[in-house]
C-alpha cells in the first residue's frame, strides 16, 4: 500500500525534518503515528497524502512510484486517500453536509446520491440535526466528526488522520477511534497520528514512532482490559 | 441595489468577494455600452440603406427661370434638357414634374406660398438611371442645349454619406471589440484575485482530489452568473435609453432623421450581448484558472 525508502524531507534550506524514513504499510493495516510535538508527524502524513514531495528517497503509493507521477495524475490518486486534517480544514461557508459532499461531488456522483449518502453518514456520526449547520456554529468535537465523515465518505483505500482526537475529551476520542476501527475492518488502511497515549494503549495496533526525524516501527502490545467498557460506550448513542 | 449573487452552492466563497460586486456592475456597464454601440451601428446601417434605396440611381435636373436673360423660354429649355437626357446612355427615364409636384416638394421651405402661380417656378426633371452615366459629359451637353439647367447628382453626396455611415459603423464595432477586450481583462483580474484570496481553499480542494477543471468550473459558474445578470441590467438600461432617444426623435419637426427604432431581429441581436459577455467570461475564466493552476504544486 505504502512504501517509504530512505525518504528525507526538508523545508526550504533548513535541516531535514524527516531523515532516512523507511517502512512498508500492508494493505488493510492500522497504525498509530506517534512522536513529540514537532517530531514531524504532520510532515510524514503530508508526504503520504501527496501534499509534499520528498526531498530525497522513494515513496511508493498504491504500487506507483511517486517520482514518476505527474501533476495530471494526482487527483485520481488523491481521491483514494481520505484525510482528517489536524485543523479539520472545513470550508466555513459550506454547511456540514456540503463539506462532507466535497469528495463525492469531485468524483461526479449524481446529486441525489450525494445528499442521501452525506445525510446518512452525518446521522451516523451523530450530526443528523446539524446537516445544514455552518462549521462556525459547531463545537470542536462536532467539527471533528464532520471532518471525519468527509474523510470516509468516498470509502478511501487509505485513511490518514492527523490528531483526530486532539481537541476532544477522551470519551469522544474513543468513539472516533471506534469509527476508524470500523473502516479498518472494512479493509481500509489506516494511519492515525496522535499524542494521546491513553487512547493508543486501549487499541491493539502497531505504531510508527518518530523521534528526532527518524522512524521506528513498534509492534502492537495487546489491549488493556478497559476494552469491554469502551465497547459499551461505543454502542451508546452519540451525545 | 447591490449586485450580490443569488448564489448557487459553490466550493469557493467567490460570491462574497469584494471583486464580485464590482465585476457585476462593470459587466452591466459594459453591456450597456456595447448594446448602445451595436444599436448605433445597426441604426446607421438602416439609415444608409434607406438613403440608398430612396436615392440610388436618382438624378434631378432643374431648369431655372432666367427672367431677362437672352435665352429660350423656360418650357423650351426644359424640353431641350429632356431630349438630351433621353438620348444619354445609361438613363432609363426622364420625367418632367408637374407644377403641383414641385410645389409639394418646395412646401417645407416656402410654406403654402409655394403654390402661388405668380412665383417663378423652376422646371424639375426626375431622372432614373439604369446604368453608369457619364455625369461630366451630361453636364456639358445640358449646359449647351438648355442654359440654366443644373444637374443635381445625388450619387456624389450619397457616396460620401455612405462612406461616412461605414466609418460610423466601423467605429461602433471597434467600440464593441474594445468592450470585449475590457471584459476579458476584468475577468482575468477578478479570477486571479479570487484564486489568490482563496488559495488555501483551492489547495485543500486539490488535496481532496479536485482536478483543475473542477476548480475552474467553480469560477466559470460564478462569472457566468454574474455576467448574465450584470449584462441583463446593462441591456435593460440600454433599452430604456434607446426608447428615450426614439421618443425624442419623434419630437423633431423635420424628418431629416429616420425613425430611431430597431427591428425585432435587431433586438434579438442586442439580447445576445449579455449572452456573448457570459460566453466570453466563461472562456476567459477557464483559461485563466487553468493557466494559473498549472503553476501551483
Ligand atoms: N511548512 C513548513 N515550513 C517550514 N517548516 C515546517 C513546515 N511545516 C512544519 N515545519 C517544521 O517541521 C517540523 C515538524 O513539523 P510537524 O508539523 O510535522 O510536526 P508534528 O509532529 O506534526 O507536530 P505536532 O504534534 O505539534 O502537530 C517542525 O520543526 C516544524 O517547525
Ligand atoms: Mg502535526
From TrEMBL, chain A:
This is Cell division ATP-binding protein FtsE. It holds the Pfam family ABC_tran. InterPro entries: AAA+_ATPase (IPR003593), ABC_transporter-like_ATP-bd (IPR003439), ABC_transporter-like_CS (IPR017871), ABC_transpr_LolD-like (IPR015854), Cell_div_FtsE (IPR005286), MacB-like_ATP-bd (IPR017911), P-loop_NTPase (IPR027417). The keyword Transport applies. One of its GO terms (molecular function) is transmembrane transporter activity. It is a peripheral membrane protein. Keywords: ATP-binding, Cell cycle, Cell division, Cell membrane, Membrane, Nucleotide-binding, Plasmid, Transport. NCBIfam families: FtsE. It comes from the Bacteria. GO terms for biological process: cell division. It is found in: Cell inner membrane; Cell membrane. Part of the ABC transporter FtsEX involved in cellular division. Important for assembly or stability of the septal ring. Residues 2-237 form the ABC transporter domain. The keyword ATP-binding applies. SMART domains: AAA. Belongs to the ABC transporter superfamily. Its main location: membrane.
TrEMBL record, chain B:
The chain crosses the membrane at residues 22-44, 170-191, 227-245, 265-289. InterPro entries: FtsX. GO terms for cellular component: cell division site; membrane. It comes from the Bacteria. Keywords: Membrane, Plasmid, Transmembrane, Transmembrane helix. GO terms for biological process: cell division. The keyword DNA-binding does not apply. This is Cell division transport system permease protein. It comes from Azospirillum oryzae. The lineage of its organism: Bacteria, Pseudomonadati, Pseudomonadota, Alphaproteobacteria, Rhodospirillales.
Amino acid at each position: 500500500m505504502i512504501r517509504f525508502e530512505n525518504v528525507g524531507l526538508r523545508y526550504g534550506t533548513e535541516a531535514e525534518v524527516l531523515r532516512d524514513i523507511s517502512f512498508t504499510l500492508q494493505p488493510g493495516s492500522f497504525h498509530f503515528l506517534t512522536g513529540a510535538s514537532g517530531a514531524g508527524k504532520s510532515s510524514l502524513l503530508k508526504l503520504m497524502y501527496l501534499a509534499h514531495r520528498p526531498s530525497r528517497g522513494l515513496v511508493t503509493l498504491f504500487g506507483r512510484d511517486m517520482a514518476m507521477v505527474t501533476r495530471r495524475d494526482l487527483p485520481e490518486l488523491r481521491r483514494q486517500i481520505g484525510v482528517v486534517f489536524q485543523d479539520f480544514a472545513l470550508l466555513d461557508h459550506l454547511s456540514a453536509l456540503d463539506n462532507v459532499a466535497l469528495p463525492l461531488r469531485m468524483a461526479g456522483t449524481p446529486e441525489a446520491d450525494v445528499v442521501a449518502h452525506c445525510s446518512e453518514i452525518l446521522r451516523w456520526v451523530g450530526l443528523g440535526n446539524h446537516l445544514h449547520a455552518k462549521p462556525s456554529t459547531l463545537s470542536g468535537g462536532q467539527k471533528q466528526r464532520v471532518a471525519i465523515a468527509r474523510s470516509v465518505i468516498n470509502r478511501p483505500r487509505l485513511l490518514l488522520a492527523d490528531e483526530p482526537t486532539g481537541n476532544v475529551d477522551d470519551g469522544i476520542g474513543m468513539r472516533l477511534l471506534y469509527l476508524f476501527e470500523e473502516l479498518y475492518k472494512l479493509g481500509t488502511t489506516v494511519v492515525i497520528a496522535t499524542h494521546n497515549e491513553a487512547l493508543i494503549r486501549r487499541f491493539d495496533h502497531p505504531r510508527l514512532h518518530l523521534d528526532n526525524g527518524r522512524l521506528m516501527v513498534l509492534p502492537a502490545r495487546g489491549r488493556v482490559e478497559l476494552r469491554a467498557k469502551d465497547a459499551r460506550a461505543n454502542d451508546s448513542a452519540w451525545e | 441595489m447591490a449586485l450580490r449573487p443569488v448564489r448557487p452552492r459553490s466550493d469557493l466563497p467567490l460570491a462574497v468577494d469584494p471583486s464580485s460586486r464590482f465585476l457585476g456592475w462593470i459587466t452591466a456597464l459594459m453591456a450597456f455600452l456595447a448594446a448602445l454601440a451595436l444599436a448605433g451601428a445597426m441604426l446607421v446601417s438602416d439609415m444608409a440603406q434607406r438613403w440608398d434605396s430612396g436615392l440610388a440611381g436618382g438624378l434631378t435636373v432643374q431648369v431655372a427661370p432666367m427672367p431677362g436673360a437672352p435665352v429660350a423660354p423656360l418650357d423650351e429649355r426644359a424640353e431641350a434638357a429632356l431630349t438630351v437626357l433621353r438620348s444619354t446612355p445609361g438613363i432609363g427615364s426622364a420625367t418632367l414634374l408637374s407644377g403641383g409636384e414641385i410645389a409639394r416638394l418646395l412646401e417645407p421651405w416656402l410654406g403654402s406660398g409655394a403654390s402661388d402661380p405668380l412665383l417663378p417656378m423652376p422646371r424639375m426633371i426626375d431622372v432614373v438611371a439604369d446604368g453608369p452615366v457619364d455625369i461630366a459629359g451630361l453636364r456639358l451637353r445640358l449646359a449647351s442645349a438648355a442654359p440654366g439647367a443644373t444637374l443635381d447628382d445625388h450619387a456624389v453626396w450619397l457616396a460620401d454619406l455612405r462612406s461616412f455611415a461605414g466609418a460610423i459603423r466601423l467605429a461602433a464595432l471597434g467600440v464593441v471589440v474594445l468592450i470585449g477586450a475590457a471584459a476579458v481583462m476584468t475577468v482575468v483580474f477578478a479570477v486571479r484575485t479570487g484564486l489568490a484570496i482563496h488559495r488555501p481553499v483551492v489547495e485543500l480542494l486539490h488535496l481532496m482530489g479536485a482536478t483543475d477543471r473542477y476548480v475552474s468550473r467553480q469560477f466559470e459558474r460564478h462569472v457566468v452568473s454574474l455576467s448574465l445578470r450584470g449584462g441583463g441590467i446593462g441591456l435593460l438600461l440600454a433599452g430604456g435609453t434607446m426608447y428615450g432617444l426614439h421618443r425624442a426623435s419623434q419630437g423633431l419637426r423635420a424628418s431629416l432623421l429616420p425613425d430611431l427604432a430597431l427591428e425585432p431581429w435587431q433586438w434579438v441581436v442586442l439580447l445576445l450581448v449579455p449572452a456573448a459577455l457570459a460566453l466570453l467570461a466563461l472562456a476567459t475564466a477557464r483559461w485563466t484558472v487553468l493557466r494559473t493552476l498549472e503553476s501551483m504544486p
